[in-house]
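Purpose: get a first structural picture of the assembly so the mutagenesis plan has something to point at.
Setup: two entries, given in the order below. No constraints added.
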Amino acid sequence: MEDTLLDLLHSEIINYTLQNGDEKDKKEEDLSGLEYIGFSTGYRIIERLTKEMPRFKDELDTMKFICTDFWLAVYKKQIDNLRTNHQGVYVLQDNAFRFLSRLSSGKQYLEAAPRYVAFTCGVIRGSLANLSIQCLVTAEVQSLPSCKFHIQVQRM
Amino acid sequence: MSRSTRFDTKKVNSELVTLTYGTLVAQMVKDLENPDDVSKQLDRIGYNMGIRLIEDYLSKTGSGRCLDLKDTADKIQTAFRMYLGVQPNVVNWSPAGDEFSFSLDSNPLTELVELPDDLKQLKYCNIICGAIRGALEMVQLDVQSWVVQDQLKGDPNTEIRVKFIRRLEDAMPAGED
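Result (structure tokens, whole complex):
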């Protein structure tokens, strides 16, 4: 299937989840529905991708897989930079994130950026959850089309 | 970034769309309760995608005007191959030549899907109908489209019907010729 299809579907999912939300609360959009759709998708796709693969060595190895092969398969490029404090915090930086690359760069649409990254936050969280890493994922967009995903692993 | 992935990218892409769509439908079923409302909403989402998809199609294929509805059917057939990776057959032309069907032997959209018994009336593939309607509207063709047969419901093929309604006239802004 064509890449275009996912791009269009992604926009429509954003439309759908936002139109159901409460309109009055304009300042802080409720992106949890969007994130959850991403979570379910990530949870399922990772299972299909990794079923023939050997077990990952450790958490860092899993993260590296997310940054390289997984990102390449889903977002058509690798993560440009991975940082970690070795205590469960990982920062993944993508300098030209797929779902932001169609927005014109500059400040005008910066405000709309969170809705274009929420699905992916969910995808990361879902994928890691299925690889038995419980975490919180947030995204930070300072200038389009670059994006940083912060992963905070929850230790039980 | 030239390193190639260890995955079959085409397959991953296709599964990604299938799974994402599936998740969306599941969410809608939860949100809307009535399967008929879900079907309607899916058609609308397809329509929204169609009105944008047509531009992508035209730019990639460089295809010109259609001579007749038969030509249109062939071009939609190409679009199926481009976007869904399956080639449907164009069948069941009406005697008047204003109605036809696409028959799909396999449908990537429903590949990993099972419909539970209480959702048998859900038109899972309505997004395709919507996309056809939306795309054709952008090239001045008003059509209706609906699902006749669905493999999800045990039919041997998935059949999508398209009916020509009328040609839309270009609405020019006042003062322009």
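Residues 1-16+31-153 of chain A form a domain with the Muramoyl-pentapeptide Carboxypeptidase; domain 2 fold (CATH 3.30.1380.20).
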